[in-house]
Amino acid sequence: MKQLPTLLITGATGFTGQHACTYFARAGYDVTAVSRNPILHNQIKAVQCNLTDKESVENLVKNTKPQFLLHLAGQNHVGQSWSDPVSTLEANFISTLYLIDAIRKESSACKTVIVGSALQFDPSNISNLIHPYSFSKTLQVLVAQAWAKLYKLHVVIAKPSNIIGPGNSNGICSILAKKIVGMEKNNTEKILEVTNLRAQRDFIDVRDVVSAYEILLKEGMSGEIYEISSGKSHSIEEVINRLKGLSTIKFQTKSLVNVVNEEIFKIIPFKLLSLGWKPTITLQSSLEDILSYYRDNY
Prior knowledge:
It contains 10 helices and 13 strands. Helices cover 44% and strands 19% of the residues. By secondary structure, the protein is of the alpha/beta class.
């Protein structure tokens, strides 16, 4: 019987982590889901581990000796990074250091994908630093690249844009959908309040992101940073108008800020496209699935 490739997925109880566990289990990997809290999943093995504890991380890698590692765990809330910057650094930077150093010691042939952030900054210009979260994610990427260089490890950095899709998420599309479903189900005031209708974002479905992670695990070049994006920019106003068309009610929209000339940008994932990946799920389909999820789980 052919042995399945072993894969560790950290942050397995998170929004992307849950999708990743299901995807890779169905794709024929021997998945071990890692989380601080207990996990129940029919298709995968689950392990509790505090990734900010060096000994626990070393034991995790020593016991599993993974061929692949997808590191999704971390603290991804900008506001929380201001109130507790040390725990943010521990969750994003220190945990990554412990993981890849354990890989160095116990499973050096492992192919690793570290998930960075579009909010990381250029460390050569400290004036570009805007919050502790950005600092923590930048340090995470730097240590990943440093260990890849110094110890000849195979470490790839993924840099996704705004990830959306069905599931419990704190992203803007999920926040809007949840509010709309609340208005559909309750006799409340039909007003949707947002900060800025003109704000532009590149939205990419979580299922396309997870398929990109598999390609990077298999074919990504060590030390390289790969953008994961749709290559399209959408305003919050456009998202809300699409949600209005999908909703069973009529509601008004109130914007707290009106910036007329919001910059329109495109993040083209050239490196990832060259590996044969391309997004397959449209913004419209993602929004339909997000609304369906909250209607079923409100």
